[in-house]
Design goal:
Oligomer: single chain
Distance between the termini: 68 Å
Shape: globular
Structural class: alpha+beta
């Protein structure tokens, strides 16, 4: 995609209930400009999280230093570190203080494929942005991007109006890997798109049972 990107999504796009914003993000374009180059991805899979009303949300138990961006104005990036090795990115939605956000789960790289490949050299084209951690890696998104305004015209991290997904192809189902409210169908994706990640239900961690030794208590 060598032609100029379409206009930025306005802030009022994000200033709506999270379950309205999430499916509307499918087909929109996330762009990140860095010293290494520019990478853009067409969003193909997202998940909605409804703040203190949602047991699966990072904001369910209130504001913390980690999730503070979620309580700010809409149209900002909430980036968090998980499993001690990956970054994931959300877009804050709804009025300030509601702490709603949409997790960006997958996207098709539509610009800057060479830069994305340098960041993920072992990935196929399909897998460059297939999953939230891979998407962040391909676009060079990490802790430094937490809190960035994606509606700022001169900002390095922006969301642009793409071609909306065909409503006939938009699917919805349970969110991936969550424990609380796992039956809520707030994962949205474009059916048949190869960049969509596989669904994985939450699997509780099993604690190893200690085996008493002979002569022990």
């Amino acid at each position: 995609m060598n032609e100029p990107l379409p206009p930025l999504l306005p802030r009022d796009f994000f200033d709506r209930p999270v379950d309205e914003v999430a499916p509307a993000l499918l087909g929109q374009v996330l762009r990140h400009r860095t010293p290494d180059g520019e990478v853009a991805a067409r969003l193909t899979e997202v998940e909605a999280y409804a703040g203190p009303l949602d047991p699966a949300s990072h904001a369910y138990r209130g504001r913390t230093p980690r999730n503070a961006v979620m309580f700010g104005p809409p149209g900002h990036a909430y980036v968090y570190f998980t499993y001690g090795m990956h970054f994931c990115m959300n877009l804050v939605c709804g009025p300030e203080g509601t702490s709603m956000a949409v997790l960006l789960r997958a996207g098709e790289i539509v610009a800057g494929e060479e830069v994305a490949r340098e960041r993920r050299p072992r990935s196929s084209v399909r897998d460059l942005g297939r999953g939230p951690a891979r998407l962040c890696q391909a676009l060079g998104i990490a802790r430094e991007q937490n809190g960035l305004d994606v509606c700022a015209p001169d900002g390095p991290l922006t969301v642009h109006a793409g071609e909306p997904a065909d409503p006939a192809l938009v699917r919805t189902g349970p969110r991936t890997g969550v424990n609380g409210a796992k039956e809520v169908p707030w994962r949205f994706w474009i059916d048949g798109d190869p960049s969509v990640s596989p669904y994985r239900p939450h699997v509780p961690r099993q604690r190893k049972k200690s085996v008493p030794t002979r002569g022990g208590r």
